[in-house]
Amino acid sequence: MNSKVKVARLSILSNSSLILMKIFVGIFTGSVSIISEAIHSTMDLAAAIIAFFSVKISDKPADKDHPYGHGKVENISGVLEALLIFGASVWIIVEAVKKIMHPEIVGSIGIGFIVMFISALVNHIVSKKIYKIAKQEDSIALEADALHLKADVYTSLGVGIGLLLIWITKLHFLDPIVAIIVAIFILKEAYSLLKTAFEPLLDVKLSDTQINSIKAAIDKHSAVYCDFHDLRTRKSGRTKYIDLHLVFPENMTIKDAHDICDIIENDIEKSLKNTHATIHLEACDKNCSYCKFTKKEKCK
């Protein structure tokens, strides 16, 4: 079992335990903010399950029907997770508004306070572990899962602080207000996740930093080629795809040009992890940038 699947399974186990604890305490205390946290954790569990299956599928090798592999399954899972969070946030706000209109007294505040801080501590530990693997493996599904848990840390702390304020001030209407604040925070998280997960489905280019790294790898060999153009980049799951056209002197043999392309492709793939580069060879037609801006004979 690889590291991605292991941490995805850990997320499922931790979320399941926290959900049971929050639901029990939420019902026992009558706190809508604790119930809202239980709903949030339920969405986290759904996200963790989606992430678990998506990382297993995304690692499958390319096949006849999927020549570019299965990497975009992770992006689809990220979009689904974001939509789940949107739905949960709306539900929390609706329930909180009902509580404002028909206020109820929150009981056993001390137990609720302790549960929220236990939840924050557990999610902090698990999210750090998942985020570390997500960065190592460049997994959007795991990064989304870690982001959920990180948000749960802040929302659990917020609910805990809200319960503490209720205990100090005896103002029980603070409970649904805290729940609404939690929901707004979760909505912001969902939007950020949706944007991150959805962009690769549209084949958005790599970041400027990554593109500059690619250009640097190509420019290292500028003495043996004339020009390059039509550089295109995209990402599928964790795999980055790069293709470009490389212009060579017209008298260079195909073998020599091909060998140079192999070297450049290897350099690009070394500069960025999980990269597949493809170069199209072209012979100089005397219109390349080298011919236009120099008087040297390299292209002849």
Descriptive labels:
Alpha-lytic protease prodomain-like, Alpha-Beta Plaits, 2 domains, 9 helices
Q: Can you tell me the CATH superfamily of the largest domain?
A: Cation efflux protein transmembrane domain
Number of alpha- plus pi-helical segments: 9
User: Topology as H/E string?
Assistant: HHHHHHHEEHEH
Question: What is the helix content?
Answer: 55-70%
Give the name of the CATH architecture of the largest domain: Up-down Bundle
**Strand portion:** 5-15%
Domain Cation efflux protein transmembrane: 10-202
Protein name: Cation diffusion facilitator family transporter
GO cellular component, one term: plasma membrane
Subcellular location: Membrane
Describe the protein in words.
With about 300 residues, the protein is mainly α. Helix content is about 70%, strand content about 10%. The radius of gyration is 26 Å and the shape is elongated. The chain starts with a helix and ends in a 7-residue tail after the last helix. Residues about 290-295 have low confidence and may be disordered. It is a multi-pass membrane protein. Belongs to the cation diffusion facilitator (CDF) transporter (TC 2.A.4) family. Keywords: Membrane, Transmembrane, Transmembrane helix, Transport.
Helix/strand layout:
Elements lengths: L2 H27 L2 H27 L13 H30 L7 H29 L2 H30 L4 H25 L9 H12 L7 E10 L2 E10 L5 H18 L3 E9 L5 H5 L7
Parallel strand pairs: 2-3
Antiparallel strand pairs: 1-2
Helix pairs in contact: 1-2, 1-4, 2-3, 2-5, 2-6, 3-5, 3-6, 4-5, 5-6, 7-8
